[in-house]
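Milestone M4 deliverable, item 7.
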Amino acid sequence: MLSSFFQNRHLKAFLLFLVMVLSMRAVCFAQKAKEEFNIILIHVDDLGWADIGLLGSDFYETPNIDRLAAEGILFTNSYAAAAICSPTRAALLTGKYPARTGITDWIRAKFQGGSEMALPSDYEENQGKEWRTPKNQGFLPLEEITLAERLLRYGYTNLHIGKWHLGEEGHFPEDQGFHINIGGNDLGQPPSYFDPYLPEKPIENYHLNNLPARKTGEFLIDREGDEVVAFIQNQRDKKFFIHWAPYAVHTPIMGKAEIIAKYQQKEKGKQGNPVYAALVESLDQNVGKVMAELDRLGLRDNTLVIFTSDNGGLIGNPTQPITDNSPLRSQKGYPYEGGIRVPTIVRWPGKIAAGQVNKNPIITMDWIPTILGYLGEESNIEALDGVSLVSAFCNPDQTIPRDLFWHFPHYRGADVVPYAIVRSKDFKLIHYFDGSKSELFDLKNDPGESLNRIDSDPATAGFLLKKLEKWLEETNARVPIKAG
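Output delivered:
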């Protein structure tokens, strides 16, 4: 056991050293980019598809996010790579499906019993269940090439701010190509949204990295916005990549008292949680603050802004819901549209025409090939699971011919069993590994997934199942096995 530990420790140290050397070489021999531009990728936590005004919210106020969409392109069929956070975050940074990385469930922090040494080399027993499920990969391996690492060779200065949730120390943003990490560690949520950002009952190692207390009571999203603005000011004459992963709008649901009071007086629609509304508004205000700083510094036309979410909105307790994802069905953690479809906006004045609405199905893994496309890099893109959206930005009527897949080989709560999904054109098949009846939906005519067509359209179901089985084999996806 001890010899294995030391071997692993030395291997990890060597890999870290190798990454540092390669990063330095990349900076010394920076490649010439086809386009010289900055990148701000805002990856919100748990923001539902219907949580912004342009997609139907009749309660939350999101004028800055709506304005961002009006100045660029709004994707109405945009998907997260998973219905939960860690798999999507790994997919965004690597350009790979969760099935390939092995991160198919959320990663537990160390205080929750997680471990950086957790590898998907075995199966969970799942007491009382008929099926054993693959253990989740407990961290993003250093061998994976992240978007930040790809940008190093083009001379970018890289900032991560906010939620990381992809492993313990040794697998933090600064180990994956980011020069600066503010707030990112193994935590999946903030201890509190109010400075000093600590839980009511102290828990060992439960804090946000590199985010010391500044002003008692200061709201976390305001602090994140200030840190992003300060970084832009410091880097205004250099190319920068900002991966802003707001802790909002994840639990614990908290808001600033004055904003909560405003929503308590507001007439409720399909959504009506005043605290969550205040949290959404704080996010919107800080998106506006960052965009205003780009304008002030004259960087607006030279900055590609991508705004998206890591999974669908969390409803929580139906009697006191956090949000409402209708007309989409269900919520975070579930295989239905409310769990995986997310709001997505892209803005780049002069490059992307304003006021576009694009109905093409897109997914988390598309951002790396899109950014590389603008940089002029064609090599190694075939190894990624996403596609470049550059041509779609120019032509919203263009159809992107491809299928999308999801893989969640785990049990979750009382009513989610292991599943895999394929969306092909307007049809979506949900296959359950435990033998539960599959579901087939026509999303064009039934976006709320109210009618299961599995019995009435066996030909389409069989066709999609073959696509799914082929994909599971190609990605070497680990699937549940019978117990015993």
